[in-house]
Amino acid sequence: MFKERKLNFVLKLLLIGNILSSACLLLSYLATHIDPQDFWLLAFFGLAYPVFLFLSILFFIVWLLLRNKWMLLSLFTIIVGLNHLRHFFQINFSTGPLSESSEKVKLLTWNVRLFDLYNYQDHVTVRQEIFKVLQREDPDIVCFQEFFYSGIPGYFETRDTLISILRTKHVVEGYTHKMRMEQYFGVAIFSAYPIINSGEIRFKNDDNNNVVFADIKTKSDTIRVYNAHLSSIRFQRSDYEYIGDTANTRRWLHPWEKPKKTEQKII
Q1: Residues 203-222: tens digit of each pLDDT
Q2: pLDDT digit string (tens) for 126-168?
Q3: Which is it for strands 206-217 and 222-228: parallel, antiparallel or unpaired?
Q4: What's the maximum distance between 2 C-alpha atoms anywhere in the chain?
Q5: Distance (Å) of CA 8 to CA 16, 42, 257
Q6: Considering 58, 59, 83, 182, which has the largest number of Cβ atoms within 10 A of its Cβ?
Q7: How many CB atoms sit inside 10 A of residue 162's CB?
Q8: Cβ neighbours of residue 244 under 8 Å, at least 6 residues apart?
């Protein structure tokens, strides 16, 4: 079956590349079992799994065409991770309709950026447009990041309005900041199904972000939904002005200001 041939310089380089890619592919399998806090470098191998898998398949095809036994190396590493492949890519051989007992849950996640609260000219309009989209999509579960809530009746209402216009009447909130005049900032989960348990995860090294979770009782099961808001790059007004991003620069302007005209900088 295999042709015995002496490896020339090119084939030796090919073999070295094959061995390295196979080793990296095996390390990517381990990434799902090792906590990044214990060995952070391994997490990057996990992120590059599709690349290493593609290279192993490519090497397998090349050795197969050459009818060389080294094809078994890539074949072995691919077979070892077949279960990992199933978890990474959705593989569904069923083409028929869902059974009557199957249940669909529609989940929507949205960073609403405080409903554009500080856009003093158009913040009410933006908030209403967000409400319209939510009504049109009619989700079963909604996860909001950068959610804003005010405890002052009639002032830029968000939570109470959402409860009244959507089916999602069950709410879990986690606020990282409480500002003056009963203003709160954080994340929230709205659910049309009952929430039987919930909790919050705070970050020790970041007071501006957090995670909330909810155990939601659907018709046929109980699912846990996590809603996380992680740190951003935190560009300031000067950063947006520097790169000429006028859309984000407007977020920092007072109503009487106009954005500066910036020249494109070539780096």
Answers
A1: 888 888 899 999 999 988 99
A2: 999 999 999 999 999 999 999 999 988 888 999 999 999 999 9
A3: antiparallel
A4: 83
A5: 12, 33, 70
A6: 59
A7: 22
A8: 262, 263, 264, 265
What distance in Å separates the CA atoms of residue 194 and residue 221, rounded to the nearest whole number?
A: 12
Q: Give the number of residues written for the chain.
A: 267
pLDDT given at position 3: 63
CA distance 220 to 193: 11
The per-residue pLDDT for range 20-67, each reduced to its tens digit, is 999 999 999 998 888 888 888 888 998 899 999 999 999 999 989 988
pTM above 0.85, yes or no: no
With a CB cutoff of 8 Å and minimum separation 6, the contacts of 155 are: 181
| 32/25 Cα distance (integer angstroms) | 12
Alpha carbons 150 and 157: distance in angstroms, whole number: 7
